[in-house]
Design brief:
With 378 residues, the chain is α/β, with parallel strands linked by helices. Helices cover 46% and strands 16% of the residues. Belongs to the bacterial solute-binding protein 2 family.
């Protein structure tokens, strides 16, 4: 009887010891898991799910490089503002690397962005030949890229935003022809070497063929100091054609050209000459509204919206979404006749008078909206 009780007691003690040792082992295992360094591999909640959603936390804190060929004028300023504000809404930071219209410097800025290991790169008005090597290095480093008006479509994996540049030109040129009665002498301000300019030139050539009684009497353009250069060169052209009726209109393929042309014409007192431009900023809109200004119309995409949409597609890439190789932004036409005469408005008000202008939902997703809400709540 005593021997049986002793055996029972020994068995009970053995079971207790096994349970204690097992509990200690589990505790040590749990402690080891919590103290181990975080893995670089995203968790299931941070990676894209089957419905395309993702943890918004994994998209915060991104460092973005905006590599620009030039940063000239108010259009560029509003575009940069759109980029910065959208990245800030996502909890990230932007570093602008402007290149002063120097492709060698732009290539060096791109290399710098890769070497500094930015999370993503935005390219503005790039050049395929100058940037191919750097873009391939960025791709090899796993850095996603979204470009605007850069003609990089032949490089796989890059999403390219572009305005419908031929339509931009067509809008303004057709209005010029209508208001000139299909005839007259015009001055073209345009510069080669930029993908959007080359596209606009296609429409211009078709326009000249379509209207044989519209003659080009002068053509020039320089992107280095566009507004002042245009003003100076057009002043010389006006002196060569001093009589009213010698020049019907100026077609400017960039708003910086249009501003310079408008200044030259106004100072010369040649109020019979009209200016038709491309692109639109707050400064441009104020000039078009001015009844004493020769600049009467422009075609454009909202520059702030361009920056916003470009950032959205970059963040889609961060999320692992399949983004299209090309995204086309449709322009609108803005004429002085459509604008109020009793007050000066900005591009923020323009949608009240010009259908199709303003904020775009292009590139937006439910998880990006959730990200904005999450960041905005802090």
């Amino acid at each position: 009887m005593k021997q049986r009780n002793f055996k029972g007691t020994l068995l009970a003690l053995t079971l207790v010891l096994v349970l204690v040792l097992a509990a200690c082992g589990n505790k040590e295992k749990n402690n080891a898991s919590s103290s181990a360094p975080a893995s670089d591999t995203p968790s299931a909640s941070a990676s894209a799910s089957s419905d395309g959603s993702s943890s918004v936390e994994s998209l915060k804190g991104k460092k973005i490089a905006l590599v620009m060929r030039f940063n000239t004028g108010t259009f560029s300023a509003q575009y940069v503002d759109g980029v910065k504000k959208q990245v800030a809404k996502y909890g990230g930071e932007v570093t602008v690397l402007a290149s002063d219209n120097d492709l060698s410097k732009m290539a060096a800025n791109l290399d710098s962005a890769v070497n500094q290991k930015f999370d993503g790169i935005l390219v503005d008005h790039g050049d395929l030949a100058a940037l191919t090597n750097g873009l391939n290095n960025a791709k090899a480093a796993g850095i996603p890229i979204v470009a605007f008006d850069s003609g990089l479509n032949s490089i796989e994996g890059i999403t390219n935003l572009a305005q419908n540049d031929q339509q931009l030109a067509e809008f303004t040129l057709e209005k010029l022809a209508e208001e000139a009665g299909g005839k007259g002498n015009i001055v073209k301000v345009w510069v080669a070497g930029f993908p959007p300019m080359e596209s606009r030139q296609i429409s211009y050539k078709a326009f000249i063929e379509k209207y044989p009684e519209i003659k080009e009497i002068a053509a020039f353009g320089d992107a280095s100091n566009p507004q002042l250069d245009t003003q100076n060169k057009l002043e010389a052209v006006l002196k060569q054609h001093p009589k009213k009726g010698d020049i019907t209109a100026v077609w400017a393929a960039w708003d910086e050209f249009a501003k310079g042309a408008a200044n030259a014409i106004k100072q010369a007192g040649r109020d019979e000459i009209k200016v038709y431009g491309i692109d639109l900023s707050d400064e441009d809109l104020k000039m078009i509204q001015d009844p004493t200004s020769p600049w009467v119309a422009s075609a454009a995409v909202d520059p702030t919206s361009i920056g916003t949409v470009q950032v959205r597609f970059l963040y889609q890439k961060f999320n692992g979404d399949a983004t299209p190789p090309e995204v086309q932004l449709e322009p609108v036409f803005v004429h002085r006749d459509a604008l109020p005469k009793d007050k000066v408005i900005t591009t923020a008000d323009l949608s009240q008078y010009v259908p199709g202008w303003g904020s775009s939902d292009l590139g937006n997703t439910e998880y990006l909206k959730e990200l904005e809400t999450s960041v905005g709540a802090k």
